[in-house]
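Entry:
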Amino acid sequence: VLFPVSNLCGKCRPRDADILQPSLNFLYWSLHQTTPYSQQRAVSVLLSNVSLLELLQKVLECTWLWSPSSEPDYLSSEDALLCSGWLLVASLLLYQHRYNSEVHQTLSVDLTQVLNAVIFRKKKPILLLVSIMQFLRAVLRQNFSSSLLVIIGQNRDQSATQSQSSSLQDAALHPLALQQIFSLVVSLQNLLVHIQLQKHLLLSQAVVAFLETLVEYLYMKNQDVALHVASQPWHRFLLFTLLNGSQKSFMRPEVLRLMTLFLRYQSSNIISQKEINQILQEAAEANLAELPEATSHALNLFLCQV
């Protein structure tokens, strides 16, 4: 069924959301809900369809052309199509790299635009923000080296007022710039504070996962920058905000994953022995068989890190 559906997509325009959105969702589902052997074949089928990839390129570009909805939590049909497009491209990046599949047509994105979508948000719906962060995670994991993706708008120009050390750090982190990274981290922190008020579990998990991937990427590129980002004092305030004095708050998956992140990069000014003991105490008192899967997984990662 992949052949006719992918061919149908290639004949559509981005405005044909009523056809494209369920079709792209079907392609996304076909990549994820199948056996590894069939998955490799599915990736090859989709990557060999030049018309489909050209359509996906147009869909991604519409992210910056279409006006965002006035309500951040409202998802229009156009927004839903954009979500499906970014998620499908993120999956294609992941599996093309895994199976080293042949690429017949590349996709290009402006890195500054994509980062600014997270840094400034600009009333983008929450699900679209999650989809873009999934795409960025896939790009970071591949060290911006995917044969499927061409990164444009790379920040090579350095301000005349920048110090030599900042220039050297930017060179090591290229195509990211140090200032972009700091802006990104602040935006992710603010999103987590906002999420705490809105109780949006999907976005909180996406933000924490993106923060994990970002720090892993930085550690690979420049350990000093990674440790500096992980030990920012603002993280301590963020942690207090997330805990918010509620009982058993340490057992929330986003809190556990943040704690694991701080432990991994030895941010002793953020997480203390007192918090570690509190988590161990709550874990000892919990009925582990009744924990949600996300919490159980996060607790396992935390305990392994300890």
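The chain has 15 helices and two strands.
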